[in-house]
Amino acid sequence: MTIQKTKRAATIRRPGLPGLKIHDLAIGSLLCVLAVFSLIWPNTGLVSSPWGAIQRGYVAALVMAGLAALIFLVGRLDFSAAHPLFRFLRNFYPQIIFGPLFMEDILLSAQALGGRSHDAFFAGIDQALFGFQPALQFSRAYSSPFWTELMFGAYFSFYVILVVTPWIPWLRGDEEEAEREMGLFTFYMLFVSVFYVFFRVEGPKYWLSELRAANYADFRGGPITAFMCGTLSNSVLSGAAFPSSHVAGSVMMSYFVSKTERRLLPLYVVLTSLICLSTVYIRAHWAIDIAGGIVAALVVIPLFNSLSPFLVRFVPRLLQVRPANPRPGSSPRTTMDAGAEGL
Question: Residues 6 or more apart from 30 whose CB is under 8 A from it?
């Protein structure tokens, strides 16, 4: 191990502190919260078993509680000297969980508080602002195969930048920044997922009867359009429209590249703009959901930056772990980036 690698490993872990990172705390806490919700509202389907059908919520609660326990236990291990592949998986495993947890939000939102939807309110705002429904008229006004393929391609590009963007600093050797970015996005997921459960907004595709009947069959485009329409038409995605996580996530990814790879920022600005338009074009969101996503990102980013140093001090006390005595002449790291790595 080179001197540089030794130095980096030393900055990521301080002796005596648990190996938990901020994204471990956020994703583990979210799993625990959703497990409790699944016990309260277990009627999200049925699961076959040798003893007969079991309400899906009980099984989901057991799985999520087990995953949370695994994260909190394995997360305390020190991976700083492990093979790069294991460090990579250690840092980016939440990306595997985001999708299933999002689907769990949707199922729970249909049960919590009687599954009451707030779409009428958001449809009214769009109507008052524009004098028509953008989710109805946008795709009709620009219905050419080119526009359709562009919009569905933009919507799909969100999943690419969501996964790849935090990898950029990692591949450049800046593991600390990669950890910080994962911490910020999982911090967002923790709060917005709980919000989705209690504030159900289905989106125009499910709320407006004519769009629900069309079910993407009226779109004509290329291979991306065909793939996305086939996927979306066979998925139930109602209940998590406001704020738009496509928009919020794209804004956060643009913020990340503005710090790590500014040459990509113009591309990300264009992609973010297209993603905002695509959410309405493909009828997944009301236009006001775009504003909600932008505001959510602009609130979460500074909030995370403010709370991160507090988490660094709070977690060891919460777990009743005392840091080892510092070396003579050393000083504690207090910056937000350093704090994220100290966890």
Answer: 101, 186, 189, 190, 193, 194
Q: 46 by DSSP, 3-state: which?
A: strand
Compute CA 172 distance to the chain's CA centroid, rounded to the nearest angstrom: 23
175 occurs within a structural domain = yes
Task: Determine the structural domain holding residue 104 and report its residue range.
Answer: 83-312
Answer yes or no: is 132 within a domain. Answer: yes
pLDDT, tens digit (0-9, with 9 covering 90-100), for 219-254: 999 999 999 999 998 888 889 999 999 999 999 999
Provide the whole-model pTM: 0.84
Give SS3 for 117.
strand
270 contact partners, CB below 8 Å, separation of at least 6? none
CA atoms within 13 A on the CB side of 150: 13
Confirm whether 285 is domain-assigned: yes
* Model pLDDT for residues 297-322, shown as the tens digit of each residue: 999 999 998 887 777 666 555 554 44
| 313 phi/psi in degrees, rounded to 5 | -80, -30
